[in-house]
Amino acid sequence: MNSRKSLADFRHDALSVTASTNSECLERARAGDAGNLWVTADRQTGGRGRRGRPWVSERGNLYASLLLIDPAPMDRLGSLPLAVAIGVHQAVRGVLPLAAEPVEVKWPNDILIGRKKTCGILIEGEALADGRYALVIGIGINIAVKPENPLYPVTYLHEHGSTVSPEELFAHLYASMAEALAVWNSGKGVREVTARWREVACGIGEKITVNLPDRSISGHFAGIDDNGLLMLDIGGKILPIAAGDVFFRS
């Protein structure tokens, strides 16, 4: 069975308003949806980011979620966020002027323009009652408005000379994500994915602080391993980190 995806494998349902495109996808998965389904919304009333943080969801930005069912064996899912990041990066870069500031990926999958966050990605999974596994990739991209977010410097596409609409950006994302998932190939393409991720990564070799749930650790960003773990160099000792918030230090 060929697990590589093509554009023809995906469907799209565009909504005006929903609480959360991620929640909508999970509800459809519980109801038996076969997956490979994109759900977009003009506005969300209950958008959320990582660790339960609210995600401001005004009209003018892109709010999209992709439902996948049994996308890979569980031990291969760790590299999926990297594939998602390169797909989103390609879509964002494709709608900006050539002279725009650098578009980079901050580990694991924030998209930055000129070191300011313009996109957040939230990946959620759930074991379904029928034995299948649902995985939802939620993507919020600031196009016309940006939130007042004290955690990070933030920006939006129109601030960098792009005139793209949410619909146009989604068309780019629809295509670039299909390509990225084809390269990832249910985890079989992890080496190609990590190589592409490193090419667009932000801050490798720089001093960073990683905020973990219980503490903060500082060191040099030594890159990622082939499973997507962040490698933090602390005085010559490499500490692998699976999850955390990264802050660059001057």
UniProtKB/TrEMBL annotation:
Its EC number is 6.3.4.15. This is biotin--[biotin carboxyl-carrier protein] ligase. It catalyses: biotin + L-lysyl-[protein] + ATP = N(6)-biotinyl-L-lysyl-[protein] + AMP + diphosphate + H(+). GO terms for molecular function: ATP binding; biotin--[biotin carboxyl-carrier protein] ligase activity. Pfam families: BPL_C, BPL_LplA_LipB. Keywords: ATP-binding, Biotin, Ligase, Nucleotide-binding. PANTHER family: BIOTIN PROTEIN LIGASE, BIOTIN--PROTEIN LIGASE. It comes from Rhizobium paranaense. The lineage of its organism: Bacteria, Pseudomonadati, Pseudomonadota, Alphaproteobacteria, Hyphomicrobiales. One of its GO terms (cellular component) is cytoplasm. SUPFAM superfamilies: C-terminal domain of transcriptional repressors, Class II aaRS and biotin synthetases. It is an enzyme of class 6 (ligase). Signal peptide: none annotated. Residues 1-185 form the BPL/LPL catalytic domain.
